[in-house]
């Protein structure tokens, strides 16, 4: 079951997500647990001789040490994948789910560490019993770990049907091309851009690299579309590039104006 979730960014623009329901999260967790168990059993089989040797040394303490190792493995499994793959464990990848911050940003190390440390409480008394109960009462289907870390699990299909606006490499680097090569410089009407709009564009550009690619495009479209319409429209525009060019041209214009006024 998926429901719409609207997140408002600091730029006061709403971004819509599909919330991941209990069913899809259950199957993702089940798949991850199966993978973890296979890793554990393989490790026990391969290291059986070493385990017998350590048992003779540590005696009854070996059980406690083994429990710590198993917990570290479960915790590290989710943390490593969530940090390395931008919020997706193998189970979440198969079910097309992703962990994000509740403001729409990718999660960082501390977010992943907190949500996965609390996973132990969610897992109690067996296979996410407490987590399931908490999710049933949470409007955004958050378990205890999500509430503690301020994270959400959302639906993010791997195959995206992008419009022709996004037919280029979506992971746009810093825009350092010469002004002579700008795509929209002869069409952009700088006098139509207000200071408030310029500030909003600057905030977006300063944070765009931290956004998920699809959200970056969605936010760029939301900011740029009213400006494009105000300037008369443009066919098949790349909104992210448009904003970068507009911001640089406007900044240069204001700098030149200040120099002329000072002269």
Describe this structure in words.
The protein has 263 residues and is α+β, with helices and mostly antiparallel strands. It is built from eleven helices and four strands; from the N terminus they run ββααααβααααβααα. It has helices spanning 22-46, 48-58, 61-84, 90-94, 109-117, 119-123, 129-137, 144-149, 195-207, 213-230, 239-262, and strands spanning 3-8, 14-19, 97-101, 151-155. It has a four-stranded antiparallel beta sheet with strand order 1-2-4-3. A hairpin with a 5-residue loop joins strand 1 (3-8) and strand 2 (14-19). Helix 3 (61-84) crosses helix 5 (109-117), helix 9 (195-207) runs antiparallel to helix 10 and helix 10 packs across helix 11.
Summing up helix and strand content along with how strands pair, one would put the structural category as alpha+beta
> Hey, roughly how much beta strand do the residues contain?
5-15%
Order of helices and strands: EEHHHHEHHHHEHHH
Number of strands: 4
Report the C-alpha radius of gyration, rounded: 25 Å
Q: Give the helix level as a range of percent.
A: 55-70%
Low-confidence stretches: 159-173
Query: What is the CA-CA span between the terminal residues?
Result: 64 Å
| Largest sheet entry | 4 strands, antiparallel
Instruction: Look at the structure and give the mean pLDDT.
Output: 80
Gross morphology: elongated
How many helices in DSSP terms?
11
Order of strands across the main sheet:
1-2-4-3
């Amino acid at each position: 079951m998926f429901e719409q979730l609207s997140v408002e960014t600091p730029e006061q623009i709403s971004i819509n997500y599909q919330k991941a329901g209990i069913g899809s999260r259950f199957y993702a967790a089940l798949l991850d647990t199966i993978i973890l168990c296979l890793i554990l059993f393989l490790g026990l089989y391969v290291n059986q001789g070493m385990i017998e040797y350590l048992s003779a040394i540590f005696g009854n303490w070996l059980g406690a040490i083994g429990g710590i190792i198993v917990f570290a493995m479960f915790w590290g499994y989710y943390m490593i994948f969530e940090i390395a793959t931008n919020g997706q464990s193998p189970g979440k990848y198969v079910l097309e789910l992703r962990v994000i911050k509740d403001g729409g940003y990718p999660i960082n190390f501390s977010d992943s560490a907190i949500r996965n440390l609390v996973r132990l409480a969610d897992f109690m008394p067996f296979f996410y019993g407490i987590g399931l109960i908490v999710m049933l009462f949470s409007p955004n289907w958050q378990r205890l770990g999500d509430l503690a870390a301020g994270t959400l699990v959302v639906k993010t299909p791997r195959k995206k049907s992008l419009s022709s606006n996004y037919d280029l490499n979506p992971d746009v680097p810093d825009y350092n091309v010469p002004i002579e090569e700008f795509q929209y410089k002869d069409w952009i009407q700088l006098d139509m851009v207000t200071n408030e709009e310029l500030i909003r564009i600057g905030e977006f550009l300063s944070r765009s690299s931290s956004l998920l690619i699809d959200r970056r495009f969605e936010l760029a479209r939301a900011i740029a579309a009213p400006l494009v319409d105000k300037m008369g429209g443009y066919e098949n525009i790349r909104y992210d590039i448009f904003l970068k060019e507009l911001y640089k041209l406007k900044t240069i214009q204001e700098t030149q104006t200040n120099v002329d006024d000072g002269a």
